[in-house]
Amino acid sequence: xxGSMRWVSITALVVAGASVAVMAGRLLLTPVQGDLLVLAxxxxxxxxAASTVELHSSTGWTTLGRFTxxxxxxxxxxxxxxETKIAVGPYDAVRVGNDVLPVRVTVQPTVLAPILIGVxxxxxxxxxxYAGSESVSLGLNELSGQMKQPPHFQLVDQFGRxxxxxxxxxHDVVLAAFHTTCHETCPLYTGLxxxxxxxxxxxxxxxxxxxxxxxxTPDVLRQYAGxxxxxxxxxxxxxxxxxxxxxxxDVELSSSDVHRSTLALIDSHGYIRSxxxxxxxxxxxxxxPLSELLNSQGQVLLRSHGxxxxxxxxxxxxxxxxxxxxxxxxxxxxxxxxxxxxxxxxKVSLRQYRGRPVLINFWATYCVxxxxxxxxxxxxxxxxxxxxxxxxxxxDSTPAARSFIDDLRIxxxxxxxxxGGAGDLYRIAGLPTTLFxxxxxxxxxxxxxxxxxxxLGPHIAAIGG
Length: 465
Hints:
- By secondary structure, the protein is α+β, with helices and mostly antiparallel strands.
- The chain has helices spanning 2-29, 133-143, 165-168, 186-199, 218-228, 239-246, 288-291, 296-303, 311-320, 368-383, 398-408, 421-425, 453-462; strands at residues 33-41, 46-48, 51-57, 60-67, 70-72, 79-87, 89-96, 99-107, 113-120, 123-131, 154-157, 162-164, 173-178, 205-210, 233-236, 262-266, 272-277, 339-342, 347-349, 358-363, 388-394, 413-417, 433-437, 443-448.
């Protein structure tokens, strides 16, 4: 009897233990959730149609729910579209109907996570989405007209491509006024941009826009950029367009050394957030091509360390407006295919190398840093036989490209992008630019400017080269 009782007791304990384990397993499998609030507002009263709302994370899309058609008030008033619970963690996009809006939001167990969607003409605005209490407050200020935006503009870059408001949407922007024949502050602004490009993620756009559109044609800007290795955007346009572009910044057109020296920060929603005026502190020195542009007064400004602001202050300001949230080598999705003729006359497409890691380097014969880095790229190609290296020459003549390659004894595949089509496909903003593509065709990252072994090595390892 006592043996039987003992057996029953042990059995009961085993069953109870199993029940506890099952319950614990269920608790572990149940994701912890947090509260999410989706709001809408508009620059002026509007209306949005009924739509489904989804949130995207590394595991895919999660449906939050559906809201009915409703009126959207003018900011700072808001309307609630949805209030729901969702698994805690980071998310990187929201989809309203067919509109996908990039946004970074982290859902936590005990903190309400608000998302504000700006609406215009019945549609969500891609550049007007805000996440987090502080960002939502900012958004309401921006939508209510408390902050200035650049005007609608259509300029051209150094490659002759159209550059308009859509080109900066979703990007934080550092913008400087300059012209190529300035011999005092402008070379120092370019020197500051060289420093910033090494520190900032590619998601932050660096733009130097001319105040002398009469002389600064796309060809002049391209030669200027190539001579100093500027891997960012230079803009020009006709005088009326440039006057309109600079008006909100209180900058007037000028071709003299005496002009308003201005650097402005524009946030990813398209609003002007801060200004720096005068001469930047670039540490007392600039590369030789820029130093040679400085006259005696420019040399004095260089040695005087400017007006007390420089790289550190600009980076701090970008950090304050969220411009450093993106990793410096974030992927860009799948690499777009192109087909070009090689220097040896063969037709080569990117698609034919699917299954192998690929390094694409965009360069030109007039680009000084391109000449410096290309032997290193060849050396890395020799050390990594699995790696495909495609050297894409931008808008050069074939004889010039052949002479350049022969001088440097380059053996990797050289492709001729004579009309700039491949460069345009990848929105190349300056030379050199290097892209790193995994064997599955996805872009691991890009580097703007002259590379070195410390830059190339980790990227090549990351793509399996």
